[in-house]
TrEMBL record:
Name recorded for this polypeptide: Fungal-type protein kinase domain-containing protein
Signal peptide extent: none
Coiled-coil portions: none
Source species of the chain: Boletus reticuloceps
Cross-referenced InterPro entries: Pkinase_fungal
Lineage of producing organism: Eukaryota, Fungi, Dikarya, Basidiomycota, Agaricomycotina
Residue ranges constituting the Fungal-type protein kinase domain according to the UniProt record: 139-304
Length: 321
């Protein structure tokens, strides 16, 4: 795979062999319960499975080997076809309970709902072909996309694929303040390219044939569908629920976020995020001896008191710190 690293639009780039890249992203221990199960076992299961893994128009595949990706990629509804195939693979794994029993085997959802109209919550009109989202909640909003897939039937240059994936990742970074990195991949006919973007650069795989190397394809699908959110690039010290958001600070304890004041709009750089937050109740009482009491001279804070905070988070280069 050849990309011009001098191209001003090419983010700092590393190209890594697909198996090495994917194995580092999704260790088997986060997908399977124990050593009794493997990707090979699951592929064997899919090859003999007797229900529809894929359906598009009049074409039905009852198992993996009957899936004709070449026909799919020229179908008018290719995004729906690939979505059904990926979703059914993930649901088959969920039913087999192959996921790590220490992590609830909740299967994320795959959607092609935005293939023809822009997703909500973004600052640009972009139409992602396929998105991975949580099974419950908003599924067509840039603020909730876990991963993105671009599906193309024609020939694309390595540069155009890279820039397309980079553009999609940049939109996610601009609208998700918990992101450490973003995973995306492209399917171009029978070939797959997977890419990771963070604030310091990008890693991309050369294209590989998913028919010839199905285990790599399965590992990506199962990883994105089941892996804990830190493997998808999320900062787990920030907890988001429908009714509240908190930061678990090692220094101050539980800090409640009221709103995001600033989120860097550049993908490269320090990725600065600024929140308006508050310390209150037991969290405030516990934090005072460490920092606040000496400054404000509060001797006996009430549990009903609160302290507004402005919290800033940014990446730093440890070599320069």
């Amino acid at each position: 795979m050849s990309l011009d690293r001098e191209d001003s639009r090419i983010f700092t780039l590393s190209v890594v062999e697909p198996k090495l890249f994917i194995d580092s992203l999704f260790p088997l221990g986060i997908i399977f319960q124990d050593d009794r199960f493997s990707l090979e076992d699951f592929l064997d299961f899919l090859q003999v499975k007797k229900h529809e893994l894929f359906k598009s128009g009049s074409t039905v595949a009852t198992n993996w080997e009957q899936w004709d990706i070449f026909e799919t990629m020229t179908h008018p509804n290719q995004e729906d076809a690939v979505k059904d195939f990926i979703q059914n693979i993930a649901q088959s794994a969920e039913k087999r309970q192959l996921t790590n029993e220490t992590v609830p085997p909740i299967c994320r959802s795959w959607s092609s709902a935005n293939k023809n109209h822009p997703a909500r919550g973004g600052d640009v009109n972009r139409k992602p072909d396929l998105v991975c989202t949580d099974p419950i909640g908003v599924s067509d909003d840039w603020r909730h996309f876990r991963a993105l897939v671009e599906i193309k039937s024609g020939e694309l240059t390595p540069r155009s694929v890279y820039l397309l994936l980079q553009e999609r990742a940049a939109v996610i970074f601009r609208h998700q303040d918990r992101r450490r990195f973003v995973l995306t991949f492209a399917l171009i006919k029978h070939e797959m390219i997977i890419a990771l973007f963070d604030r310091g650069g990008s890693v991309i795989s050369p294209p590989f044939n998913i028919i010839d190397r199905p285990l790599l394809f399965l590992k990506v699908v199962l990883g994105l569908s089941f892996a804990p959110e830190e493997y998808l690039g999320y900062d787990t010290t920030i907890i988001t629920r429908p009714s509240f958001r908190i930061i678990n600070s090692r220094f101050l304890g539980r800090v409640t976020i009221h709103c995001t004041l600033f989120l860097a709009d550049r993908m490269d750089g320090r990725g600065t995020v600024v929140w308006l937050a508050v310390l209150e109740g037991d969290a405030l009482t516990a934090a005072l001896p460490k920092l606040i009491q000496s400054y404000f001279h509060w001797s006996s804070p009430s549990r009903h008191m609160s302290l507004p905070l402005v919290v800033k988070d940014a990446w730093i280069d440890e070599k320069n710190s």
